[in-house]
Protein 1
Amino acid sequence: MIEKAVLPKEVEIQEQAIVILWDDGHRSPYPHRFLRLRCPCASCVDEMTGRPRLDPDTVPQDVSALDQMQVGNYALQFLWSDAHYTGIYPYKYLISHCTCIVCAEARAGAKDQAGESNT
């Protein structure tokens, strides 16, 4: 069975966060710096190891998205106030990093279950 992709219905850059309303009705808030520090581009993440290359101390505390654009039918790209713009954030990546209470609790529950199965 083919899984239907969830697409952004609306992307709003607010003062404190980027808020994405997905077409399934889910609302995902992303604090600006939270998302900037998770940039998946090759400058920020080592392509071979997946280890972060970005030093968090080099990203201003008040960094914010200034603009955004859709990339194909699979991702968003942001222009950040620190002049970084090469990161492409696939929708699946954004959904997996949602900071809403429901998603945070689900991730915590999954970690708890994984920990229980390892004991």
Protein 2
Amino acid sequence: MTHDQNQHLLVLTHGQEDGGSRATLAFALAVSLQAMGSDVAVYLHEQASLWAFEGASQSIHIPGFDSLQTYIDLFLEGAGTLYVCASCANDLPNKAGGYSLSTVSKLGALKPTVIPAGITTLASLLLNRKSVSL
């Protein structure tokens, strides 16, 4: 099976435990790939499901990069597809190392363009795209 050279999948598994550094890198990479003509999808899994919510990325800014929210906005404006593990997003406060209920309640709703998806969607994406996990 061959991968389409212009289709990429970034699987992000890290949330705020690193201050948003991996999320910033993942979305900066996604935007860079889009600028090079690639069709890019991002799948948020485990702790990274946090980034699917409206209020999660507002205050994240890693030195040397634009804000995480800027990269997410650019990614979505560039027709990127953003998936979130549905069970992960629904169970954020109960996961090992999960977020408190007060943190989760401040996040608001899922971003309107986020697609809740299961493991079969991830498997399907992996079959047809080059992938990297961050």
